[in-house]
Each structure stands twice: as structure tokens, then as C-alpha cells.
């Protein structure tokens, strides 16, 4: 399986059409989402459009889900949308509300994602919204920021639900009992994460990767960071409780590294293990 996955990662990382679907959805969202009172909100609804429409693809050997589409047909009609969207983006420039706030070369707070889940983070956002003072001049900007975060994060949860449903459907249709069992567990992972806190190593690994994959779809390239630090408690607990074997945990980590090669090619900065 690993040989097949490595070969697929090699092909993915050199696929000139890997970004076609994402780019088409991005430019269609630019055309379909009119200007709003906040650039943050306009961008958030672009995020939502991408997550609501991007193809859910599961490879035959995948144990961790979150993969760029291998091929996507750009028809003449889609090319027209592509070209018009590019024109609008170039004409509007930085004031169009299309850009992400990515800085690259940084790591999001995976510890918070895994311990709270996205629903827990949305609860924090709701508390911030309720606490806003409408006497303060900066309130409008803060409100737009919190609302846009909520739109984007809820869209990630909805995207994960589509993965859950697809995996459940695939498991029911799979003739090979071993693969059907794998797909069932993957579906069960998405019934929990990234919406809710991760309880197990497998869930935590899937949650971290899925959110990183979502950020990649937004052209906001985040990194995995200190994987050994924030994943160790889940691993130790599952080993202690007999929920996972060392061999299966190792297989999942191998797949994770291959997933990085799928979307980052040979760029070596995505994972830190050890060091100071």
C-alpha cells in the first residue's frame, strides 16, 4: 500500500491540473458573491463556496482523508468563468476582499483545535460577539472579523460532514470486508472531528490533517509544526488503553507524511520532529 501511496504522491505533486477545481470554484465565488460591508465577510463566503462544492475524493488505499482532486475538466463555460473571475480579481486589487490573511511559514494552534473542536472555537466567537460594545468605534470591524471566522469555520464542519457521508456510503458499497471496515472507521472519525474535540490518536491525526488540507484549498499554506508534541498525549493514552497498536499508529504516520508530499511536493518545511 505504501508503495502505491508514494507513487500517487509523486504524481499528485507534479500534476499541473491539481489546482484546477479549487481555482475554478474560487473565481466562480468571486463572481457569485457580491461586495459586502466587510472584506472579511466577502472572503469568508468565498471560503464557504469552495468547501460546499469541492469534490470529496477518497483514494483506494487512504486511511487519512483530505486529497486534492486528480483531474477536473475545465469546459469552455468554466473557462469563461475562470477568465471573468481573474479579470474582476485583478481589477479590484487588494480592496476586493478576495485575499486570505495567510502569512505562510507558520503553524495554527492545533492543540486548541484538538482539545476544543471547531464547535468549541465557535462558542468562543459567539461569546466575543455578545461582549462587543456598540459604543466603541472599532466594534464594526471586530464584528465583521468574528462573523467571518464563524462562517469559514462552520463551512469546514459542513465539508467534513460531506466526507463522513461519502465514507459511510463507500463502506456500505465496498465488497472487500477489510476495506469496508477501514472506511467505516474513517466515517466514524468524521462523525467527531474536526467539529468536536478529538478523543483518540486516529481522530486527532485526521482532524489536524483535514484542517490543514482545508487551509491549502484556500491557498493559505499552514504547516504541521511540532507533531510529536501535540500528538503524543493521544498516542500514549491509546496505547495504554489498548485502543491502537504501535504498528497501526506507525502506518498512519507514514500515510500522513505521504499526504504532505501530495500537496507540498518535496518541500521539507512542513513537519518538525525533535530539535530545539
The gist of it:
This protein has helices spanning 2-13, 20-32, 39-53, 76-92, 110-131, 139-173, 177-190, 201-217, 227-241, 246-264; strands spanning 225-226, 271-272. With 276 residues, the chain is mainly α.
Descriptors:
276 residues, mainly alpha, 2 strands
Please describe what this structure looks like:
This protein is mainly α and 276 residues long. 65% of the residues lie in helices and 1% in strands. The chain has 10 helices and 2 strands, in the order H-H-H-H-H-H-H-H-E-H-H-E. A two-stranded parallel sheet has the order 1-2. Helix 2 (20-32) packs across helix 4 (76-92), helix 6 (139-173) packs antiparallel against helix 7 and helix 8 (201-217) packs antiparallel against helix 9. The longest helix has 35 residues, at 139-173. The two termini are 34 Å apart. The mean pLDDT is 91.
Amino acid at each position: 500500500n505504501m508503495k502505491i501511496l508514494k507513487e500517487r504522491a509523486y504524481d499528485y505533486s507534479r500534476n499541473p491540473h491539481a489546482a484546477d477545481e479549487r481555482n475554478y470554484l474560487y473565481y466562480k465565488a468571486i463572481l457569485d458573491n457580491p461586495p459586502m460591508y466587510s472584506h472579511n465577510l466577502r472572503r469568508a463566503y468565498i471560503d464557504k463556496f469552495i468547501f460546499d462544492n469541492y469534490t470529496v475524493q477518497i483514494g483506494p488505499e487512504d486511511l487519512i482523508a483530505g486529497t486534492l482532486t486528480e483531474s477536473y475538466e475545465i469546459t469552455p463555460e468554466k473557462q469563461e468563468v475562470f477568465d471573468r473571475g481573474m479579470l474582476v480579481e485583478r481589477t479590484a486589487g487588494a480592496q476586493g476582499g478576495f485575499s486570505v490573511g495567510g502569512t505562510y511559514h507558520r503553524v495554527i494552534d492545533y492543540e486548541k483545535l484538538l482539545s476544543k473542536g471547531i464547535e468549541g472555537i465557535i462558542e468562543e466567537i459567539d461569546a466575543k460577539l455578545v461582549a462587543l460594545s456598540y459604543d466603541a468605534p472599532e466594534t464594526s470591524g471586530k464584528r465583521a472579523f468574528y462573523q467571518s471566522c464563524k462562517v469559514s469555520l462552520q463551512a469546514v464542519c459542513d465539508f467534513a460532514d460531506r466526507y463522513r457521508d461519502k465514507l459511510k456510503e463507500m463502506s456500505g458499497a465496498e465488497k472487500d470486508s477489510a476495506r469496508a471496515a477501514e472506511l467505516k472507521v474513517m466515517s466514524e472519525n468524521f462523525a467527531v472531528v474536526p467539529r468536536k474535540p478529538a478523543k483518540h490518536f486516529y481522530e486527532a491525526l485526521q482532524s489536524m490533517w483535514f484542517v490543514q488540507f482545508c487551509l491549502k484549498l484556500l491557498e493559505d499554506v499552514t504547516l504541521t509544526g511540532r507533531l510529536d508534541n501535540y500528538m503524543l498525549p493521544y498516542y500514549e493514552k491509546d496505547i495504554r488503553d489498548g485502543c491502537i497498536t504501535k504498528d497501526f499508529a506507525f502506518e498512519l504516520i507514514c500515510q500522513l507524511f505521504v499526504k504532505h508530499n501530495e500537496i507540498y511536493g518535496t518541500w521539507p518545511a512542513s513537519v518538525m520532529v525533535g530539535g530545539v
